[in-house]
């Protein structure tokens, strides 16, 4: 799934840009794997995918 599409899906689920930023910070601080997210909305997403979502958020 591309970043733009994923961002749209997350927005529909009520996820905010702050939630995306928090998940990125959590992953960087803890080296969490994609099957251990802080927020379940990001289950099975890699850190790179989440960063891409952040880049595409306002498009």
Written account of the structure:
Helix content is 58%, strand content 0%. The mean pLDDT is 94. It is globular. With 59 residues, the chain is an all-alpha fold. It is built from three helices and no strands. Helix 1 (3-12) crosses helix 3 and helix 2 (17-30) runs antiparallel to helix 3 (47-56).
Counting helices, strands and paired strands, the structural category is mainly alpha
Helix content: 55-70%
Uncertain runs: none
Helix count equals 3
Strand content: under 5%
Main beta sheet strand tally, sense and closure: none
Written as H for each helix and E for each strand, in order along the chain, the element string is HHH
Q: What is the 3D form?
A: globular
Radius of gyration: 10 Å
Total strand count, please?
0
On the 0 to 100 scale, the average pLDDT is: 94
Distance between the termini: 16 Å
Please sum up the structure shown:
The protein has 59 residues and is mostly helical. The chain is built from 3 helices and no strands. The longest helix has 14 residues, at 17-30.
What are its keywords?
59 residues, 0% strand
List the helices and strands and how they pair.
Layout: H1 3-12, H2 17-30, H3 47-56
